[in-house]
Design a protein that fits this description.
The protein is of the alpha/beta class and 336 residues long. It contains 13 helices and ten strands. It has two domains: 185 residues, Rossmann fold, CATH 3.40.50; 109 residues, Rossmann fold, CATH 3.40.50.
């Protein structure tokens, strides 16, 4: 059933409901062409100034603008979901449709990209949705949460202690029973959050290095699964997790992926969600260059990439793809 989700996101078709649909029409949709239309050259104005002779071959850097999915200028699709959330939700939707449950429940903060995307998808597919939010009902709604409400999501606020139980399988089972719901982990992580990235496989094969920002690392895992031994995945960790993601990957990724991989752990700019003045300056410059960035993930991705180029201009030039994972709605929380 996630085929219907993909069809709605990646085509200009206006149908958005659960009745039977034409599978052959979905299969004929030129997915590669759709995704290739989202690849743009990285703005040259943001690249560090180096002598042209520094590189043995011309530097090729592109950006996969997943943030443009769902935007008014992309194939006339008005659905308010974009970036990596599109891919992380696809497998969870498959699991939901295969279950007897009638609603969706998940977790997030007051500026959660995940809840924002889930509310949009649930509205599109006429599925009741409940968002468990860390916070208190007397607090004014953020713009993100107001959007969620406007898209039909029911919000349930949790104090810090209650929200901390979101990883507790017994509590999640209780939530499932209470709301007759399929419970999606925070951020859409887990095995079901990985499978949707198979859609990207055909365009990733053309690049030597792929860069992506990470929180839980789910998107990076989904991408790594479709890279070859000749490719390198560079993961910019947006969380100050004292090396936890690095340790997890050292165990779980060693035998499960063919590609080389690297995690950059010192590019979080002071911690998750921190946006110091230098990062704001980069965001302003990127805006002027036509590449809007969010301060939580993609600005730190670009910052780490540019720092690597500046420190190692003598490195052999490779064909590089930066993946823009969206999250632009969250800029409102930073007055950007």
């Amino acid at each position: 059933m996630s085929y219907l989700f993909w069809f709605r996101i990646l085509s200009s078709n206006d149908a958005c409901s659960l009745p039977e649909f034409d599978q052959e029409l979905v299969d004929r949709e030129p997915w590669n062409e759709v995704l290739e239309a989202l690849i743009e050259p990285f703005p040259s104005s943001l690249l560090p100034a180096v002598e042209e002779s520094t590189y043995s071959t011309p530097l090729e850097v592109a950006v996969l603008r997943l943030d443009r999915l769902g935007s008014p200028d992309f194939r006339s699709t008005p659905l308010h979901v974009s970036g990596n959330k599109v891919f992380k939700l696809a497998g969870h939707l498959d699991a939901f449709f295969a279950s007897p449950k009638s609603s969706l429940v998940s977790f997030g903060g007051r500026w959660s990209n995940h809840l924002h995307a889930l509310a949009a998808v649930a509205q599109c597919l006429s599925i009741p949705s409940i968002g468990l939010v860390r916070g208190y009902p007397e607090q004014p709604l953020t713009a993100t949460l107001q959007d969620c409400v406007d898209m039909g999501m029911t919000l349930k606020f949790c104090d810090k202690q209650t929200y901390a139980k979101r990883y507790d399988p017994d509590w999640r089972q209780a939530l499932s029973e209470r709301y007759d719901a399929w419970v999606i982990p925070e951020g859409g992580e887990g095995e079901d959050g990985i499978v949707g990235f198979s859609v990207l496989a055909s365009i990733l094969k053309d690049y030597d290095h792929i860069w992506v920002a990470a929180g839980t690392g789910t998107s990076a895992q989904g991408i790594a699964a479709h890279l070859t031994a000749k490719q390198t995945l560079v993961v910019v960790n947006a969380v100050a997790d004292q090396g936890e993601l690095q340790r997890q990957w050292a165990v779980t990724m060693k035998s499960s992926v063919a590609c080389h991989w690297e995690i950059i752990d010192d590019a979080h700019q002071g911690g998750f969600g921190k946006c110091p003045a230098e990062l704001r300056t980069l965001i302003t410059s990127a805006d002027a260059a036509g590449l809007p960035l969010d301060p939580v993930y993609t600005a730190k991705l670009v910052s780490a990439f540019l720092e690597r180029l500046a420190k190692s201009p003598e490195s052999p030039a490779v064909k590089t793809l930066l993946i823009h994972t969206g999250g632009l709605q969250g800029r409102r929380g930073f007055d950007l």
